[in-house]
Amino acid sequence: MNLHNLDDYALVQQYIAGDQICIEELIRRHKNRVYTYILLIVKNQHLAEDIFQDTFIKVIKSLNKGRYYDKGKFLSWVLRIAHNLIIDHYRKQKLLNTVPNETGDLDLFNNRKLAELNVEETIVQDQVMSDVRMLVDLLPDDQKQVVYLRHYCGLSFKDIADQTGVSINTALGRMRYALINMRKMMKDKQLSLTLS
């Protein structure tokens, strides 16, 4: 049987049934897209390689535990896992209150004291971020996806269009409608999203 002729869902099912070679085909088939996606966000080759490996380790563990439900959307599922691992990485980095220094030089500003906000600023910032996340979660899925890819992942609209399989104009339109909807929801819920 030629694995190249099988779709992703069939390969997943055969892997779950015990055919180990199918996972190798899935990785071979999607490695370039997944790695490029990660690299576009983290902009660091070594970090991208680490997250890429962690992504497929998590994919394999999830498949082995029967946690795959996205029939016909394997790549989207893998990219979502990669995205979550990237967010986890930056959350951990933020907890350390450090800024990566690519040059390796001593950075006098990379200091915990200088990175901390006062209590009031922290409370306000946390509330604003919580409100923004709540508004984004209320958006239709297509608009939510564009907002996450643009503002949380830092992708360009061209990259978003490529990633989601739509035209750049469609991606821009979804962002425009997302912002309109979020402004309307802010008004309806009487939210103020300013840090000052």
Describe this structure in words.
This protein has 196 residues and is mainly α. The protein folds into 2 domains: 116 residues, Rna Polymerase Sigma Factor, Chain: A (Orthogonal Bundle), CATH 1.10.1740.10; 80 residues, Arc Repressor Mutant, subunit A (Orthogonal Bundle). The chain has 9 helices and no strands. Helix 2 runs antiparallel to helix 3.
Question: Any chance you could write out the topology, listing elements then pairs?
Answer:
Blueprint: H1 8-16, H2 21-42, H3 45-64, H4 74-95, H5 112-115, H6 119-138, H7 141-152, H8 157-164, H9 168-189
Helix pairs in contact: 1-2, 2-3, 2-4, 3-4, 7-9, 8-9
Give a quick set of tags describing it.
196 residues, mainly alpha, Rna Polymerase Sigma Factor, Chain: A, Arc Repressor Mutant, subunit A, 9 helices, 71% helix, globular
